[in-house]
Amino acid sequence: MELKEKLISSFMAFEERVDVNDSLHDIRINAMKNFENNGFPTKKEEAWKYTSLNSVLKNDFSVFPKNENSIQYSDVKKYYLHEIDTYKVVFVDGVFSSFLSSTTHDGIDVCLMASALTKPKYKMIIDTYFNQIAQKDDSLTSLNTAFAMEGAYINIPKNKVADKPIEIINFSTGTEAALLVQPRNLIIVGENSHVQIIERHQSLNSNPVLTNSVTEIFAAKRAIVDYYKIQNDTIEASLVDNTYIAQKQQSNVSVHTFSFGGNITRNNLNFYHQGEHIESTLKGITIIEGKQHVDHHTLVQHATPNCESHQNYKTILGDRSTGVFNGKIFVEKEAQKTDAFQQNNNILLSDKATINAKPQLEIFADDVKCSHGCTIGQLDETAMFYMQSRGIPKKEAKALLMYAFSNDVIQSIKIPELKARITKIIANKLGVNMGFDL
């Protein structure tokens, strides 16, 4: 049985056993109809022109884990940001692990999406926010919506600052021969509130896993949201990540995406402006090798005046790896005084590496400051020669140049412990010990 047919038949059984309100049943059914009509995306679609899921979809994925799996904290500690205290919402093979988690309802809600979807006290919030900005005609978003149950629910009320960062971690144990997991996250940040969130998907085994994740983020007036995605999974893991962000006036949301591991990674990052004086920041570092494939699709929809957006994506590609950057800035007629910047820089370390870049500006306002740039090249041989002539070995010189290439993104990380962790991952990825604290 093909995966599409398996999902359709599994949905009927899923609907019978979940306990949610009637409006959610309707949302699920409509979402499944959309997926049934459209199926998995193919390269015939313009948005997926350079990314194929065919090799991943050949696996016989289990839709629901057959066994409950437990793992020890000592086995996964290295994947946490354990240098500091954090709230943690942890899932093992798509199932919440209370043992590995640290949730709270003390002033803020850091808990389970399943609780928010099923308990009456959350009904008003779910009706107001759930599936409101997620793209209804996107087939993989629809598939996630149809099966939405497990995931993180984070609600930071008005005038609150989360007292410590929040980690959302999804572990795959490999107990199943192949597993499909579909986490659904809902994050609501109230007026004048602030939160820092770190998201990670991590396989603990070499069995194939496909993660189809959807996150909706709502930032109210003057809210500040710092969101960090660490993508350093095993080569057998593939990820499709859809993140949708709605911002009200004077809010500030930044998303940093660090893509180092995995087989096929597709990041769809969508910002929607719903007020004036908004600031949106989208930054990313991609360092891949072998036959890895990372595809970044970004959209910033400027619909209101006096707003800013800044995009800066750095990509380093080795061996036969493939990178894709498709960034779109859309400025509506009413969005006067928009300041939008987009930059995509790429380094190819191999003649067989490939980058497909498509920066886009669609501007319908006449009083704006918008720019985009894209560069594709190799390491500077003159700089390499200069460093080698001063006693720096070729391997270390190459690594220093690549680190300097990505440094402006690293420096914008606001959690010092996370900055140290990312620099360490980069050093490992580059295969060097640089001999000093980055």
Please tell me about this protein's structure.
It contains ten helices and 20 strands. The chain is α/β, with parallel strands linked by helices and 438 residues long. The chain has a domain at 1-255 and 262-273. The mean pLDDT is 94.
Task: Summarize the model shown.
This protein has ten helices and 20 strands. The chain has 438 residues and is α/β, with parallel strands linked by helices. The strands form two sheets. The protein has a ten-stranded mixed beta sheet with strand order 2-1-5-8-10-12-14-16-18-20, with helices on one face.
H/E order of the elements?
HHHHEEEHHHEEEEEEEEEEEEEEEEEHHH
Terminal CA distance reads 50 Å
Oligomeric state of this protein: single chain
Question: What fraction, in percent, of the residue positions are helical?
Answer: 10-25%
Main sheet attributes: strand count, strand direction, barrel closure: 10 strands, mixed
Quickly count the helices: 10
Query: Within the largest sheet, what's the order of strands?
Result: 2-1-5-8-10-12-14-16-18-20
What is the averaged pLDDT score? Answer: 94
Strand coverage percent: 35-45%
Give the low-pLDDT segments. Answer: none
Q: In terms of structural class, how would the helical and strand content be classed?
A: alpha/beta
Count all strands and give the number: 20
Rg over CA atoms, rounded to whole Å, is 21 Å
- Using the alpha-carbon principal axes, give the shape: globular
